[in-house]
Amino acid sequence: MTDVQFADLVVRDASHRAPRVLARALRDVSLSHRWIAAIKWAQRDLEGELRDCAGRRDSDAAERRARVEALREVLAGRRREAAALIAGRGSCVPVPAAGSERELRRAAGELAVDRLIEAHRAEFTVLLVEEFERLGVAVPGRVARHLERHVAEGAAAGIPVRVVT
Predict the structure, then answer these.
(1) Contacts for 108 with CB less than 8 Å, ≥ 6 apart
(2) pLDDT for 106-129, tens place per residue?
(3) What residues have CB less than 8 Å from 151, skipping those under 6 apart?
(4) Cα angle vertex 33, ends 28, 37, to 5°?
């Protein structure tokens, strides 16, 4: 993904228009520095938009300023989230500090999914591999590397896991 495409994804995530899987992928600690750089780029772009409509008093300009301010606030939160990931204090799911009931329910659901995956890592990895194979997609090396370890951990915990090959 090019830097421009990545920055576009960051803005779509902040605007709540990114697919869930991509929004979650942004929160991988290995992408944190790139995420922050894209956020800074988007914040500079938004500052330019505010300067462009600074002297205008029409309703379109007021609406545009309100949208830009809201997006700036979300991007500032995302930047703090990325910094927390780098510092090792972060979650892979954004939790709104204060949000609508709908946003909080969504965050709760995503956190529950993460906890469920973590609690049943072996089964999840096996199911993931099965789905890759069912769809005829190559299993990513990262998943393949973890498969044997996750199955061994599951077996040690007394969790029966069948591996389909």
Answers:
(1) none
(2) 777 777 777 777 777 777 888 888
(3) 122, 125, 126, 161, 163
(4) 120
What is the C-alpha to C-alpha distance for residues 29 and 149, in angstroms, rounded to an integer? 21
Characterize 53-68 residue by residue with b for buried, 16 or more Cβ atoms within 10 angstroms of its Cβ, and e for exposed: beeeeeeeeeebeeeb
Distance, in Å, from the CA atom of 86 to the CA atom of 108, rounded to the nearest integer, reads 23
Residues contacting residue 154 through CB under 8 Å, at least 6 positions apart: 120, 121, 122, 123, 160, 161
List the structure tokens of 155.
Answer: 């077996």
How large is the angle between the packed helices 59-86 and 32-52, nearest 10 degrees?
A: 160
Distances (CA, A) of 12 to 2, 18, 20, 49: 15, 5, 11, 17
What span, in angstroms and rounded, lies between the C-alpha atoms of 98 and 78? 14
3-state DSSP assignment of residue 14: helix
The answer to whether the predicted template modeling score (pTM) of the entire model surpasses 0.85 is: no
Q: For 40-69, what is each residue's pLDDT tens digit?
A: 999 999 998 888 888 888 888 888 888 898
Instruction: For residue 103, give the amino acid letter.
Output: E
